[in-house]
Design brief:
3 strands, three-stranded antiparallel β-sheet, 80 residues, 4 helices, alpha+beta, single chain, 14% strand
Length: 80
């Protein structure tokens, strides 16, 4: 049985600041979809050190902050 988040608890404060439905972390498939690349590309980026992934109970996850960092640090596209 899950317990409703109590936003008065200090450890819950950060989660309570998120808009409803926001995720703190994404699976490899979700991260790829969010960035517009394939899951294979995400795994390549993890292997090359471009994306820092974490393991949580056997699942590979990528935090929202990490995805934002990757996008922010991407070089600008050149006009064709």
């Amino acid at each position: 049985m899950t317990r409703a988040a109590n936003c008065n608890e200090p450890r819950r404060k950060k989660a309570c600041d998120l808009p409803p439905g926001s995720k703190l972390a994404y699976t490899v498939d979700e991260a790829g979809s969010a960035m517009g690349v394939s899951r294979t590309t995400v795994f390549d980026m993890i292997r090359n050190g471009e994306v820092i992934a974490k393991k949580l109970r056997g699942r590979t996850i990528i935090t929202r902050d990490e995805l934002q960092r990757v996008i922010d640090e991407a070089p600008p596209a050149r006009a064709a």
